[in-house]
Specification:
Heat Shock Protein 90; kinase; single chain; HATPase_dom; 161 residues; alpha+beta; 6-stranded antiparallel β-sheet
Amino acid sequence: MVISLWQQVSKEQAPGRHATPRCRVTWEGGTATAVEGRTASSNFLSEVQEADGTPLPDRLVGDIQLVVSELVTNAIRHAPGPCGLQVELSADGRAVRVAVWDTSSKMPTPRPRDACRIGGHGLEIVRAVSRSVIVQPGSPGKQVTAEIELPQPARGESASW
């Protein structure tokens, strides 16, 4: 079985700077699944936790996987062609950044809250668990980036994420 999935975990490092761990996954048109996105992000978070030696809270891991799932599902549902996912630590080490790109130039439109509506809550959910959400036009398509804040170590403790 051939799976059109490319995953790369890279630790690029500029001179004098700490490495920025990240995971990238790209899918050809019609092959993306939210499960593959969640699996890639889960593996990435496990590697980050192993490197640091400090476990992330289960709720935070769940929130990150929820964001990945919602953004990848939206890309699958609303855009033709290839799409991709990148999960990385923010430059300040205080958040996990989840970015999903697709080939549709149509920007997502947040809908008003409606508890009776079935579906259409993805962006609302992503915004609820993220410290920021940015939608940027791309060529082709767009990228949606969400940052989920990491718990900060208590004074005197260190975390190397």
